[in-house]
Design brief:
This protein is mostly helical and about 425 residues long. It contains 23 helices and no strands. The longest helix is centred in the middle third of the chain and has 32 residues.
Length: about 425
């Protein structure tokens, strides 16, 4: 069976280069393996159905709906106004406001693309109007968007947790400190860039303006507080938290702010279903192929082989970082996660690496990959919003990768940055 799976994987890789949709390639590879192995073909749909029949996976469409509602109801504008009033008076203040707004929005959307495509539109326009160059405005927006899936809630963490059988709540908590470190590292680079480029500084708006901006954004700012507080207190599970968040977003947009017309709701629901369908198709077909991989015993053989070859957990983690950063350059994050989790997670377990620590490293690597060419999806979204060529933004983003990689190395070398808070809260 091992030889059969190796041939099937080779053909699958060829199909990717020929442009076959990823979910179709994964599904066809699964059918090809079971057919060659003499297993009834009906087992593949069964495994796909089992993957979809998952209670934790219900969090995915609910978090997607929440992000769509927040974007459409003008919540993002309130958040950015508050962030600008809070830190816009610093040199390069709109860069700082951009990052702070992403931290706040991260506690709502859980998606780097939602961050870049939602609040990023407002941020880039405001920075251009204030005299910032296009490269700075777009690159800061793209870099800060990677914080979205690290600070809970997080769609990639939900997908990883379901795929690797790890606690969603523990992964959510593990992302808080690294996410704040990412923001701090990016702001430190803003200080350096501001001095070199002479970026503008806005006058302090006054406490009255700051208080008014805070009051306007207060109910929006409560969203991450409600989610985080509910998770820590045990009031609801991560899946239930997604339902609470989606309901709260609808309450803000439809009832309190009244900024979301009821007629727009069908469109938002359709967009949510479309995005969920793409994610679910990938997850179902990848789960079927992962079962085939397990049956072929390739992960079971690779795990001990990697442990015996590398021999040291730290060297293994550094090698995984390098591999995932390279994979992130050419493959979409969730797709890469679904393909590599069955191979790398057993190897990490063989080294005795904490599964929550490894999960955070996994997700953080792939989020950095979303802003690295040639297939950085957040770069594509940001370039389209900014109306600038992709290659120009690809060059501009390079300095902003350094602080993110520095945080990645810090989390890799010092596991308590990831596992201290989950252990404190969950025991």
């Amino acid at each position: 069976m091992t030889e059969t799976m190796l041939v099937v994987l080779g053909l699958w890789l060829v199909s990717l280069f020929l442009g076959l949709p990823l979910f179709a390639g994964l599904g066809l590879a699964s059918f090809a393996f079971v057919w060659q192995a003499g297993i009834p073909l009906g087992i593949v749909p069964q495994k796909m159905a089992q993957a979809a029949n998952s209670f934790p996976l219900l969090a995915a469409p609910l978090f997607i709906l929440m992000g769509n509602v927040m974007n459409a109801s003008g919540v993002t504008e309130r958040i950015f106004r508050f962030a600008t009033a809070a830190v816009g008076w610093l040199r390069g203040g709109l860069c700082h406001a951009n990052i702070l707004a992403s931290v706040i929005f991260a506690g709502m959307s859980g998606s780097a693309v939602a961050d870049a495509g939602g609040i990023g539109t407002i941020e880039i326009k405001a920075m251009r109007d204030a005299g910032y160059d296009d490269e700075t405005a777009a690159s800061v927006t793209a870099a800060s968007a990677t914080i979205g899936p690290i600070i809970p809630p997080s769609l990639p963490m939900v997908i990883y947790a379901v795929s690797a059988d790890v606690s969603i709540g523990a992964l959510f908590l593990a992302g808080v400190i690294p996410g704040l470190l990412m923001a701090g590292a990016l702001m430190a680079l803003v200080v350096v860039v501001s001095r070199r480029k002479g970026l503008p500084r806005e006058p302090f708006p006054g406490m009255r303006t700051l208080a008014r901006a805070f009051a306007e954004a207060f109910l929006s700012l409560l969203t991450p507080v409600i989610l985080f507080g509910g998770l820590i207190s045990g009031l609801f599970t991560p899946t239930e938290a997604a339902a609470v968040a989606a309901g709260y977003a609808l309450l803000l947009g439809l009832v309190i702010y009244r900024s979301l017309p009821l007629a727009h709701l069908p469109r938002l629901l359709a967009e949510t279903v479309e995005t969920t369908g793409v994610v679910l198709a990938l997850l179902m077909t990848a789960t079927a192929l992962a079962w085939c991989l397990s049956l072929s015993r390739i992960p079971q053989m690779l795990g001990p082989m990697i442990v015996a070859t590398v021999g040291d957990p730290l060297l293994f983690l550094l090698a995984v970082n390098l591999v995932l950063l390279l994979v992130g350059m050419v493959m979409e994050a969730i797709a890469a996660m679904l393909v590599l989790v069955p191979i790398l997670v057993p190897a990490a377990a063989g080294f005795g690496i904490d599964p929550v620590h490894f999960g955070l490293i996994f997700v953080l690597n792939l989020m950095i990959g979303t802003i690295t060419p040639p297939v950085g999806i957040v770069l594509f979204v940001t370039a389209r919003i900014a109306g600038m060529p992709f290659d120009r933004l690809s060059r501009a983003i390079v300095p902003w990768l350094a602080p993110l990689v520095a945080v990645l190395l810090a989390v890799t070398l010092y596991p308590p940055l990831a596992i201290w808070l989950p252990r404190l809260v969950l025991g």
